[in-house]
Amino acid sequence: MTSRKLSMPHTTLRRSAGFSLYAPLWLALAVSPAAWAQSSSASPPSLSEQMLQVRQLATNGQRDAAIERYSALLQEHPDNGDLLLARGRTYAWMGHYTQSEADLTAVVQRSPTYADAWSALGDMYSWSDRPQQAIAAYSHWVELAPQDPAAYIARGRAYRAGGDRDAARADFASARACGADPAEMASLEASLTRRTANPEAMINDGFRWTLRAGIDHTGFSGGRQDWNDVDVSLRRRFEHGSLALELLRADHFGRNDTAWALDGYTSLWPRAYANLRYQRGPDSGILPRLGWRAEVFQGVGSGWELSASVDHLRFSSDTEFYGVGVGRYAGNWYTRYKLQHVPGAGSGSWSHRLLVRNYYRGDADDYLELSLGNGRSTDFDNFGGIVRNNNAAIGAAWTHFITPRWGFKLGAGYADNADGFNEQDLSFALYSRW
Question: pLDDT digits over 295-306, tens only?
């Protein structure tokens, strides 16, 4: 058995309206002798027809009833691999992976050339977040059906979930060569673009240099004087990371300060990378005289990313921020929650930040993002590590590349400042790559 899909006739059994198995005898006698003879000789539903009926139960949400029927049929046909396969698939749909694995493993042991069984086993491993076992199962399917693009697509997805993007790219190329839908393959190939918490710093998109120039305007309620911040950065990409030289200028309360910084990202070990930053400012002013950051990101499981960070700022005294975060990559979506703690009197202070990003074109260049937060926090990505203390804050941004070399970022935000002022923020940045 090497077929991909289990094929069954689409037969529906109907019972005439008003007819009952307990119909009076006179009704049966009223039927013509020929019809009586025909109904008497009618055979019961075949096994294929019964399996089709049970499958309809499973696909219509009545999976417990389907499992009972499959189990009853297996009592009558204990050596039927199709029945065992069908029950194993249903268990997998229900999330009962232990029972599903037992059934599907039994099928492939009995029939090691049954391609559909290896496909089902690979699906079960994928759904239960076991990409390495899924790859092994799908590899059997590929061997048995080397011209089936679905086999390469399934294994490519498993490779992607396991973090092996090169192997996934090779499988998607094989699927395309076998005649897979071009639009589907374009979407899958785009999904292999590596996404990180800071895409412009870690993504090697074929350009070595990126120049970024941005301006941020913050207005306040209550007659407080506006803030204006400007930054210019030149980033050089390398095979396993990037390094940027930044110039920062802040105009707050009628005072101007300038600082410079080095901001680097580098790969560490499989599925891990780090951000290291060093910044110098004036001896006294609105920007810190010294600042540094160390943050490590580690991918885990299927699409999850953990992080830990330390930020150090020196104004007239030293302040440190300790953070932990968890991110999730799912299709074209990226979500990240970060908790930061500032030691101090009592239990110190805490801040919470949530970022939701959608890569609406499937690449790493174009995305929409929404951010929410509260508490005392700092972010070196925002003009030199300005410390903000907000009761609540919300922001939105749009990053878009008009051409491969030119792009922009628009942002807007609102915050209820803990000092009693409300903030309204507008920002714009222009990107050039070569």
Answer: 999 988 777 899
